[in-house]
C-alpha cells in the first residue's frame, strides 16, 4: 500500500509552490539547529546542482535564446545582421488567419483526445482492476501503442485511413456495410482532425490505463468492500469511493495529456502535412513550416512561445481547478 | 441468494472479458496488419481487398532491412544511447527531486517553476539554439551529444514525477536516520532510493522509450552514418519517389521488439511503481 | 528484486552496446583528406548501392589520399538538415541538392561560386545540358553544376490502356479529354496526379502557352492568372469534377498513390520521372509502364525540369579535393554508372549512349529538349506552397480557377519583390 499523503494545507502561513500545493508537509518536523540547517541547505544545493546545471544549459538557455530569436527578423547565417522587430512577430501571428485555424485545430484535437483517453483509459483500468484471467497480456496489448514510435504508428494509420483502398473503409463499408460510402477520413478539415484524434486516443489509452490501474489498486480494498456491503450499485460505488480517491491522479493525467495534445506534431506532419488546403495545420506543423521551410525563425519562435504560454496557463488553471474540491474534503 | 451472486459475478466477469477482448482487438489490429504487411512482397502491400494473411509470404523484407545501411549498427547505437541516457537521467533527476521534496532552501520554488516550464515548451523550437550550443560544446556528430541532450530533456518530467513520490515517503523514517547521524547523502542513497525502486523503474522506462524513439535531434546533429540511430535508419527506407512499405514495417517491427520485451518483463514493477505514487500531481 | 533485474539488464545492455560500438568505429588515417558529401540518394533502390559500392570506391582508388564520406539523408529531412547546418556553420564540403534549393542556398551566401573558384568550370559547363545548368545560376554566378536531371513524361500501363479500348496514349489535350471519358466508362481513371504544386500542374500550364511569371521572374500577376494558364487548370478541374481524375490530386489520402493505382489497374497513367521504371521493375514486376510525351497543347508538349545539382560550400576546408570529387561525379564513367541506377545523366554526349543503358530514356531526352525549369528564386518553397494551396482551392470548388489563380498571383508578386 502506498504511504498516506501528508497534507497540512490548512496551516496558516504555509507557502505554496507554483502548483498551488502546500509545502508544509515537506518541512522537517523538528527544529534543526542553525548549523545543521545551514548544512542541510548546502546539501540541498549540492543535490540540485548537477541536474539543474545540465537542465539550465540544454533546456533553459535554448529557451531564452529562442525567445530572443522571436524578437528578430532572424538571419540564420552566422555573422549576418538580424533586425530587431520587438513584438512584431507576435502581432503578426494575431493577424494571421492560418495561425488561428491552427489554434482551433489544436484545441479541437485536445478536446477530442484528452477526454477520449481519460474515459477509455479509466474504463479499461476499471475492467482490469479485478482478477481477470490474462491480465498481464491485456496490459501489454493495451500498452503496445504507447511504446511504438509516433513515426511508425502515423505511417500505419495513414495507410489505414486511405479513402479508397484503406483498411478502415474496407472493413466499415465493404465488409460490415455500416456506412453507405467510403468515409473521407483525412480529406476534410474536421473529419481529418477527428481521424488524427482517433490515432491520438488509440495511442494514448494504454498510458492512461496503466496509471489509472495503478491508482485504483492503491484504493484501499476495505473501502470498496464497505461500499459493496452497503449495497451500493457498481457505478455509485465507483463514484463514491474510487473516483475521489484517484482524483489527484486524474489531475496529473489531464495536465500531462493537455500538454501532450498541444504538442501534437509528428502524426499531422506525416499524415496530412497540414493539408488539404492548410485546413489541418496545428500549431507545431505551422511553426515548423515557417522556421524550417521558409527560414523565418523569428516568426516560428514567436508561434512556439504563444503555444507555450497557452499550455502554461491551461496547465496551471487545471491544477487549481482540480485542487479546490480536494481541499474542501480534507 | 449466494448462488445468484456467484452467477452474477460470473456474468460480470464474462462481460469484462468480452469488453476487454474487443478493446484488445482494436488495439492490436493495426499491429497485426503491420506485421502481415512486413511479410508481403512489395507489389501486394496496398492491395484491394486488403490481405490480412498474405497469400505470398516472404521474409525478404526482414533480411533486406537488417542487412542494408548497417541496420544492426544503428540498433546498437540506439541501445547504447538509450541505456546511458536512462541511467544518467534517473540519477540526476532523483537527486534534484530529493532536494526539492525534502529541503527548504532559497530559490526552491523558482527552480521548481522553471522545471515546469521545461516540461511545457515544445522541443522543436529549441532545435536551432540547441544545435548552436552543441556545436560550442563540441558535441556535434557524437552519440554523447545525443546522451547529453536527451538526459537534459528528460530531467523535467522525471524530477516532477519523483518529487511527488519522495514527498510521500514518511519523514519519520528519515528522522530516525538523522538521529543516528545520517547525513543527507546517506539518507538519499540508503533510504530514499531503495524505497523508491518502483518509481525509479517508471521514470527509467519513460526515459528509455523517449530516447529510443527520438528522431529529429539525432538527425540534426549526427553526420556520420555509422552513428545513426534506429529511427533514422527506418526513415531512410522512405525514398524520395516511393516508399518501400514492406521494408519500413519490417524495420519498425525490429525496432519495437526491445521495448515490448522491456515492458512485458517489467510491467508489474512498472504498474506497482505508479500504484505506490510515482505519478501524482 | 525486479529493479535489480532492471539494473542488471541495463548494465549488460550498455556493456554489449559499447563493445559493439567500439568494434564498429571506423579508424581513419591522419594523412588522408576527407571530403564530406551530403546527398539524398534513395536507400530502397539501387542508388545508394551504386554510390557506395561503385562510384566512391572507384574515386578513392584513383585518388589516393582522398577519402569520401557520404552522408545519406532521407530526402524529406535534407532541407531541415541543411538549414540547421547553415545556422551552425556546419555544412559539408559538397551537397547534392534539389535544383529548387540552389537559389535559396546561394542567396544565404553559403555556396562557393563555382565559376570563380573552379578554374576549369567552363570546360565542365560546356559538357552539360543547358537547362539543368541554368538551375545553378543566381545573381550573376554559377554556384554548382548539374549532377542528374529529369523531367516528367506521360507514363502509362499499356495493358490498362488497351483495356479502355485506346489505340495509343493521348498525344494532345483533346485526346486526353476524350480518353478520360472513355476510361471512366470502363472503370479506370486515365490520368492520376498526386498534387497541385508546380511540379504537378506546370506542364499543363506551359503546354497550353501559359506561365507562372514573366521572363525575368519579377511578376506573376497577368501570367499565372492569364487566360492560358487559367484555361489549362480549368481543363484539369473539369476532368476532376467529371470524376475522371482521382481525388489524390487534392487530398493525398483520398485513394491509392499513383504507383499503387496503376499497379492495381485503377489508374492508367500519371506524369512522372525516369525513376518510375526502376521502381516498377523492382516493386511491381508484373506491371509494365511505358512513357510517351506529355500531351501537347497549343504551345506544344512542355514539361518541367527536375533533378539535382552538386554544389560546394564556402566553408569547405578541402576545396581542391572536393572539386576533384565534383569533377569525378561529372565524369563519363560515373554518369553512366548512375544512369544504370535510374539517375539521368546531364552530359550532352549522353544522348548518344543513354538509350543503350535503358531504352526508356529516349522519351525523357526528347521531353527535356523543351522542358522548363521552375522559377529560380530563394522564396521558391513559399511560392510553390501558394500555388499548391490556391490551385487545390480551384479543384475543391471553393473558388473559381480565375479567382484562385489571381489570389495566388497577388501573393507571389509580393514574394518576388
Description:
The complex is a heterotrimer of chains A (330), B (281) and C (417). Chain A has 330 residues and is mainly alpha-helical. Chain A has helices at residues 34-70, 88-94, 97-128, 135-147, 150-160, 167-175, 189-218, 221-229, 234-245, 247-262, 266-271, 283-293, 297-329, and strands at residues 72-73, 83-84. A two-stranded antiparallel ribbon of chain A has the order 1-2. The radius of gyration of chain A is 24 Å and the shape is flat. Chain B has 281 residues and is an all-alpha fold. In chain B, helix 3 (71-102) packs parallel to helix 6 and helix 7 packs antiparallel against helix 8. Chain B has helices spanning 2-38, 60-67, 71-102, 108-120, 127-136, 143-167, 171-179, 184-195, 197-213, 216-221, 230-235, 245-278. The longest helix of chain B has 37 residues, at 2-38. Chain B folds into two domains: 2-44; 62-278, MetI-like fold, CATH 1.10.3720.10. Chain C has two domains: 33-151 and 306-366, Periplasmic binding protein-like II (D-Maltodextrin-Binding Protein, domain 2), CATH 3.40.190; 153-303 and 379-416, Periplasmic binding protein-like II (D-Maltodextrin-Binding Protein, domain 2). Chain C is built from 19 helices and eleven strands. In chain C, strands 2-1-3-11-6 form a five-stranded mixed β-sheet. A four-stranded mixed β-sheet of chain C has the order 8-9-7-10. Classes of the chains: A mainly alpha (330), B mainly alpha (281), C alpha/beta (417). Chains in contact: A-B, A-C, B-C. Chains A and B meet through helix 1, helix 3, helix 4, helix 5 and helix 6 of A and helix 1, helix 3, helix 4, helix 5 and helix 6 of B.
Task: Please give a handful of descriptors for the protein shown.
heterotrimer, A: 330 residues, mainly alpha, MetI-like fold, 2 domains, two-stranded antiparallel ribbon, disordered N terminus, B: 281 residues, 12 helices, 74% helix, flat
Amino acid at each position: 500500500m502506498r504511504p498516506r499523503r501528508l497534507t497540512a494545507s490548512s496551516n496558516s502561513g504555509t507557502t505554496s509552490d507554483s502548483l498551488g500545493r502546500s509545502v508544509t508537509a515537506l518541512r522537517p518536523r523538528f527544529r534543526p539547529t542553525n548549523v545543521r540547517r545551514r548544512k542541510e541547505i548546502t546539501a540541498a544545493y549540492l543535490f540540485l546542482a548537477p541536474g539543474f546545471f545540465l537542465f539550465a544549459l540544454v533546456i533553459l538557455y535554448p529557451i531564452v535564446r529562442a525567445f530572443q530569436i522571436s524578437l528578430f527578423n532572424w538571419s540564420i547565417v552566422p555573422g549576418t545582421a538580424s533586425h530587431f522587430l520587438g513584438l512584431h512577430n507576435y502581432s503578426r501571428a494575431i493577424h494571421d488567419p492560418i495561425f488561428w485555424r491552427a489554434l482551433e485545430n489544436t484545441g479541437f484535437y485536445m478536446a477530442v483526445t484528452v477526454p477520449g483517453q481519460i474515459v477509455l483509459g479509466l474504463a479499461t483500468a476499471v475492467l482490469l482492476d479485478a482478477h481477470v484471467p490474462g491480465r498481464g497480456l491485456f496490459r501489454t496489448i493495451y500498452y503496445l501503442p504507447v511504446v511504438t514510435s509516433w513515426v511508425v504508428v502515423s505511417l500505419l494509420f495513414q495507410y489505414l485511413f486511405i479513402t479508397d483502398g484503406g483498411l478502415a473503409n474496407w472493413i466499415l463499408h465493404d465488409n460490415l456495410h455500416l456506412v453507405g460510402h467510403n468515409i473521407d477520413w483525412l480529406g476534410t478539415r474536421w473529419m481529418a482532425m477527428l481521424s488524427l484524434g482517433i490515432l491520438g486516443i488509440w495511442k494514448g489509452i494504454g498510458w492512461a490505463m496503466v496509471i489509472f490501474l495503478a491508482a485504483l489498486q492503491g484504493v484501499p480494498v476495505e473501502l470498496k468492500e464497505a461500499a459493496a456491503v452497503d449495497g451500493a450499485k457498481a457505478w455509485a460505488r465507483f463514484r463514491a469511493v474510487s473516483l475521489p480517491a484517484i482524483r489527484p491522479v486524474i489531475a496529473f493525467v489531464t495536465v500531462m495529456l493537455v500538454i501532450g495534445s498541444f504538442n501534437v506534431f509528428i502524426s499531422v506532419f506525416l499524415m496530412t502535412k497540414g493539408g488539404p488546403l492548410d485546413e489541418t495545420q496545428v500549431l507545431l506543423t505551422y511553426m515548423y513550416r515557417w522556421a524550417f521551410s521558409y527560414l523565418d525563425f523569428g516568426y516560428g519562435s514567436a508561434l512556439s512561445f504563444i503555444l507555450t504560454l497557452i499550455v502554461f496557463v491551461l496547465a496551471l488553471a487545471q491544477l487549481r481547478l482540480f485542487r479546490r474540491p480536494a481541499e474542501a474534503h480534507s | 441468494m449466494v448462488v445468484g451472486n456467484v452467477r452474477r459475478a460470473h456474468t460480470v466477469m464474462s462481460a469484462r472479458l468480452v469488453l476487454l477482448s474487443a478493446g484488445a482487438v482494436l488495439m492490436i489490429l493495426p499491429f497485426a496488419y503491420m506485421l502481415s504487411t512486413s511479410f508481403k512482397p512489395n507489389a501486394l502491400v496496398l492491395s484491394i481487398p486488403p490481405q490480412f494473411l498474405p497469400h505470398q509470404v516472404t521474409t525478404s523484407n526482414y533480411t533486406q532491412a537488417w542487412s542494408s545501411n548497417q541496420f544492426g549498427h544503428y540498433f546498437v547505437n540506439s541501445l547504447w544511447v538509450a541505456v546511458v541516457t536512462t541511467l544518467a537521467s534517473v540519477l540526476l533527476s532523483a537527486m534534484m527531486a530529493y532536494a526539492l521534496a525534502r529541503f527548504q532552501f532559497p530559490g526552491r520554488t523558482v527552480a521548481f517553476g522553471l522545471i515546469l516550464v521545461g516540461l511545457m515548451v515544445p522541443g522543436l523550437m529549441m532545435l536551432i539554439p540547441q544545435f548552436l550550443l552543441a556545436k560550442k560544446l563540441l558535441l556535434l556528430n557524437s552519440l554523447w551529444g545525443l546522451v547529453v541532450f536527451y538526459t537534459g530533456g528528460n530531467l523535467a518530467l522525471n524530477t516532477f514525477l519523483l518529487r511527488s513520490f519522495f514527498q510521500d515517503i514518511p519523514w519519520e523514517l528519515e528522522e530516525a536516520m538523522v538521529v543516528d547521524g545520517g547525513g543527507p547523502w546517506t539518507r538519499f542513497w540508503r533510504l530514499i532510493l531503495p524505497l523508491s525502486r518502483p518509481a525509479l523503474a517508471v521514470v527509467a522506462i519513460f526515459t528509455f522509450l523517449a530516447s529510443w524513439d527520438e528522431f529529429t535531434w539525432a538527425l540534426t546533429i549526427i553526420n556520420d552514418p555509422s552513428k545513426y540511430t534506429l529511427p533514422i535508419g527506418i526513415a531512410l527506407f522512405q525514398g524520395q519517389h516511393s516508399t518501400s512499405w514492406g521494408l519500413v514495417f519490417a524495420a519498425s517491427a525490429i525496432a519495437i521488439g526491445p521495448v515490448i520485451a522491456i515492458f512485458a518483463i517489467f510491467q508489474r514493477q512498472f504498474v506497482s511503481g505508479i500504484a505506490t505514487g510515482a505519478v501524482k500531481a | 528484486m525486479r529493479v535489480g533485474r532492471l539494473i542488471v539488464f541495463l548494465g549488460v545492455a550498455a556493456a554489449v552496446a559499447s563493445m559493439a560500438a567500439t568494434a564498429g568505429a571506423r579508424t581513419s588515417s591522419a594523412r588522408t583528406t576527407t571530403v564530406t558529401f551530403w546527398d539524398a540518394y534513395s536507400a530502397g533502390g539501387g542508388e545508394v548501392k551504386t554510390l557506395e559500392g561503385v562510384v566512391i570506391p572507384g574515386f578513392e582508388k584513383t585518388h589516393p589520399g582522398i577519402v569520401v564520406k557520404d552522408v545519406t539523408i532521407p530526402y524529406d529531412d535534407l532541407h531541415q538538415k541543411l538549414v540547421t547546418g547553415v545556422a551552425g556553420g556546419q555544412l559539408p564540403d559538397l551537397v547534392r541538392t534539389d535544383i529548387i534549393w540552389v537559389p535559396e542556398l546561394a542567396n544565404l551566401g553559403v555556396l562557393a561560386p563555382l565559376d570563380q573558384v573552379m578554374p576549369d568550370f567552363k570546360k565542365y559547363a560546356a559538357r552539360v545540358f543547358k537547362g539543368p545548368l541554368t538551375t545553378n545560376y543566381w545573381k550573376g554566378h554559377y554556384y554548382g553544376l548539374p549532377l542528374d536531371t529529369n523531367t516528367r513524361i506521360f507514363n502509362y500501363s499499356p495493358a490498362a490502356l488497351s483495356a479502355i479500348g485506346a489505340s495509343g496514349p493521348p498525344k494532345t489535350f483533346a485526346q486526353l479529354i476524350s480518353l478520360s471519358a472513355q476510361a471512366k466508362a470502363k472503370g479506370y481513371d486515365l490520368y492520376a496526379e498526386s498534387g497541385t504544386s508546380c511540379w504537378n500542374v506546370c506542364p499543363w500550364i506551359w503546354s497550353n502557352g501559359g506561365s507562372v511569371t514573366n521572363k525575368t521572374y519579377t511578376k506573376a500577376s497577368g501570367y499565372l492568372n492569364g487566360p492560358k494558364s487559367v484555361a489549362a487548370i480549368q481543363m484539369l478541374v473539369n476532368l476532376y469534377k467529371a470524376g475522371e481524375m482521382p481525388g489524390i490530386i487534392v487530398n493525398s489520402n483520398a485513394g491509392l498513390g499513383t504507383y499503387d493505382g496503376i499497379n492495381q489497374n485503377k489508374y492508367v497513367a500519371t506524369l512522372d520521372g525516369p525513376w518510375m521504371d526502376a521502381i516498377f521493375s523492382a516493386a511491381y514486376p508484373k506491371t509494365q509502364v511505358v512513357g510517351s510525351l506529355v500531351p501537347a497543347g497549343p504551345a506544344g508538349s512542355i514539361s518541367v525540369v527536375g533533378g539535382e545539382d552538386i554544389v560546394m560550400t564556402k566553408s569547405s576546408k578541402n576545396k581542391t579535393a572536393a572539386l576533384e570529387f565534383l569533377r569525378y561525379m561529372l565524369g563519363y564513367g560515373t554518369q553512366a554508372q548512375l544512369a544504370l541506377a535510374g539517375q539521368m545523366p546531364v552530359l550532352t554526349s549522353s544522348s548518344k549512349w543513354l538509350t543503350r543503358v535503358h531504352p526508356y530514356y529516349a522519351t525523357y531526352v526528347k521531353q527535356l529538349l523543351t522542358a522548363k525549369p521552375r522559377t529560380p528564386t530563394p522564396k521558391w518553397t513559399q511560392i510553390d506552397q501558394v500555388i499548391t494551396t490556391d490551385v487545390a482551392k480551384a479543384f475543391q470548388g471553393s473558388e473559381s480557377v480565375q479567382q484562385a489563380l489571381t489570389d495566388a498571383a497577388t501573393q507571389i508578386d509580393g514574394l518576388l519583390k
